[in-house]
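Q: Start with the shorter request: fold the first protein.
A: Done. Sequence, then structure:
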Amino acid sequence: MHRPEKLSHRQTVIYEFDMLEYCYQKLAGPSKKLTRYEQNVYIECFLLHYQNLIDFFGKEPTRDDLSICRPDDWRQNRQIDEQEQKNLCKDGKKVRNEYENLPAGDTISRYLQPCTQ
């Protein structure tokens, strides 16, 4: 088994959407009955990709994070002016704040964290 080649930045974002949709379909689709372990695997996978997308849309980027706020990293053959970039970033932060209630500690990472008390 070997690690696949790194996708382009744009393909990485698309991959996150694709995996989120795939996991959702496995959990909510009319497929065969999943075992408890299979359900847990798909729930964790769904949450992981969901968290990645929430961070892409609303987390302040650091280092080499892909972010809606840095469209030059992922856009393809499309100019994004400064005002549109500001709007994307502002709207992304709004989405993240809606789905990650940081002050209350109600975050996705709480469900994906290592074994703690």
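Q: Next, the second protein, separately.
A: Sequence, then structure:
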Amino acid sequence: MPSAWQMAGTEGTGEYFVVIHTYLGRVGYRKLETSYRLRVEPEPAGRAELSRILTRLNGWKQPDLGHERYSTVVSKEEFPNALGIAIRALDSTRAELNPSTPVWIREIVEQARTRTGIFISYRRAESQRDVKRMYDRLSSHFLRSTVFVDLDSIPLGKPFSEVLQEALDKTTVGLVVIGPLWVSMTNADGTRRLDDPGDFVRLEVSALLTMGIPVVPCLVSGAQLPEHPELPVPLRPLLSRQGVSLRPDPNFQHDLDGLLERLTRYAA
């Protein structure tokens, strides 16, 4: 094998299988008994960039003095997300893929290349202020992710449905912002918006729930998670997803920081 695909183990774990190699560095993994160890080794051109990204991610071990490598141990369930973050950090659009990469790893690589975004779904009439604060904070924190929210993300004159689909195709984690009126809000004719199959929030959430990605209910302004009968059937799986509460000031920023910390498993 070319030297680019060789990564000797140093932490008692044996040799790593190198997945991709770019001008910024390379990423490899090693199967342990019940988990996986991932390692990223930067090239000189990527040392500053990878240090900025990986040292702030939960669970990633920083290099020892004199060594340029980052590692983490993750469960089988966490492995696709952790590997995806490493791949995106290495600028996978310019990556060389190991020809011996297994099919299931190739699927993770492809998803990492195409899904890089955080999608925020919300009701503008009730949550615009909170979502603007979330968007500003997320955009400044996740420098390698595209944060989609219709406040600033839709080009002038472009159909919303087209932009929505493009954003969903790139989404790696969805945030569903739920305010006190999220369930009960109605159209002009008095029908409940969530009961309208063409309602954009319903379309967004139902699409996110079928994509096999983390979808996080975010409760704002004192809202409670809806009851099962209150939701249309396509949205009911949302109730089984682990959510967060973003309390009103003075606690909003603290709660948002906690959300950012947890999201670092999915975005970089």
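Q: Describe the second briefly.
A: The longest helix spans residues 124-141. The CA atoms of residues 135 and 147 lie 7 Å apart.
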